[in-house]
Amino acid sequence: MRIAAVSDIHGNLFALDAVLADLERRGVDVIVNLGDIVSGPLLPRETAQRLMALGLPTIRGNHERQVLTMEPGRMGASDRYAFDTLGEAERRWLAALPAVRALDADIFLCHATPANDVDCYLEDLVQRELRPAPLERIEERTRGCEASLILCGHSHIPKLVHLSTGQVIVNPGSVGIQAYEGHDPSPHRVEMGAPHARYAVAERRENGWAVEFFAVAYDWNAAARLAEQRDRPDWVRALRTGFVAS
Fold it and tell me: Does domain 2-241 have CATH number 3.40.50.1580?
């Protein structure tokens, strides 16, 4: 079985379409979507509509929860743009998405960790940086989840971790945005250093899961021009370079 994981699209339909086109030649059996689908200044409604038509196994992320439940006046700019742009059909679709999902007995989908949608799974926040978490802490976060393959997103950092139990945890990285400044639980920044859209493919073999990571070129300049029209200079530099605006 070959399973492709996409995550953290953040309304970037330019990047999503490039990833889907790239996946057409990979021969995967299923594509799963790990959440944070629409929040961002680009094309949230159109991104939701594209995915609704595809019917992929999909879970919601923390930004879906925020867009659907938070008071609009308390939202960040990306959530608020999605809130203002989505139609009723897209809202219903997002509201129906589960927080986690077992694709089968061996494959588990979560946005951040199996327990919640806000804590990074494979990283710890240390001195304003997301740094690799110790294996013991990752195993603690995994406790209670027995799947041999766990797919997560949230941090936007592509990563593979193999546990002492034999379980494999994969974060495919972000499709839609390769740099950001976070504020929860404290200020930090993540920078991939390149604008390419990220995803991963896991293949079940006799001796375990094999994982490949992919970085796909797309028209990030078109995406950046749209962000500029939306008055989001932070997204303009992140989309073009994979770095946060200095």
Answer: no
The model's pTM: 0.96
Count Cβ atoms within 10 A of the Cβ of residue 41 and give its class: 0-12 exposed, 13-18 middle, 19 or more buried.
Answer: buried
14 within 8 A of 219, measured Cβ to Cβ: yes
58 DSSP 8-state letter? B
pLDDT at 127: 77
- For residues 88 and 84, give the distance between their C-alpha atoms in angstroms, rounded to a whole number: 11
Residue 1 corresponds to which tokens in the numbers above? 């079985």
Is residue 78 helix, strand or coil? helix
pLDDT in tens, 124-133: 988 778 899 9
N- to C-terminal Cα separation, the chain: 43
Say which residue the tokens 């409604």 belong to: 45
Peptide bond into 185 cis (omega under 30): yes
